[in-house]
């Protein structure tokens, strides 16, 4: 069983690495560089404006630490045939699950500690914390995450697996109690409560014999959530879209298509119906709106707005070849130039809509109309350059 988990962990890493290479391409890495840089700069500019002991600061810290406790799930790496082929290894499977639990705890603790460090500058600004208090808070975050993962471990057991509502409540209530005590009573008391909860959970939930059905389903759900993230950037065979009627999209299709143009009709319907492409454009637009809304620095706000417009355009351009492998589209008596113009029209309208939404959001909390006007002018210019020149160059590369 020791070799089995090591082999599966290695194959799991190789599979994730394959998708990570596709996700973190040059464009996305540049976008992340600007995005995290902008967020870090805005964070550093926001902290000096805060005062000591704001009434909402402790509640925000409680919310943050409860949320980050949910990051990092139990990774058992079990597969669907395991209940049949590993059933004779009932006694040995406990060693396998012990390795899986330790592996999950290491990853989960690292993620929680990293996210905890992000909140510490805010906590140091609004609360009078000492170095000893910070150490207690980090240890409390570690213990709370271990307790959370033990809750996930008992959730796939025969005895406790059926109590799903109780498990979900423990996922949220236990960290909530710990962090309420930590921030409203004291860090040392929060550490004490977290230690008591860990001892109580491990003592009470001792009989954790595996329920194969629940364990396999939990691992499938975990991997599906990972694949859905990868599916935002590339095609993942394990994730299949669903087909359903969207009446609200009728007006959007009419806005994107062009009357009596077959390719315009096809591209407009394909864009709206293809949840991978339209969903990606929608999510990038929403993220861009949120980011530019909270960035107060004018030049940085403009750079991020233009960057998101460029990202949406580059993610949408490969949609031009969506129907390239469909043999029936090649028998249309329509010139290639007409197809290019129809897609260019779709690209232009999508970029204009996305650009207007991001520009409107860039007015920010301070209602900076001058910044909005500048972003609007530059956004229109960038949209024109992307659809008229950059797209033509991409088309030449695609059709070689």
Automatic annotation (TrEMBL):
The keyword DNA repair does not apply. The keyword Membrane applies. The chain crosses the membrane at residues 20-43, 55-79, 100-124, 130-150, 171-204, 286-313, 346-363, 369-391. InterPro entries: EcsB_ABC (IPR010288). It holds the Pfam family EcsB. Signal peptide: none annotated. It comes from the Bacteria. Keywords: Membrane, Transmembrane, Transmembrane helix. This is ABC transporter permease. The lineage of its organism: Bacteria, Bacillati, Bacillota, Bacilli, Lactobacillales.
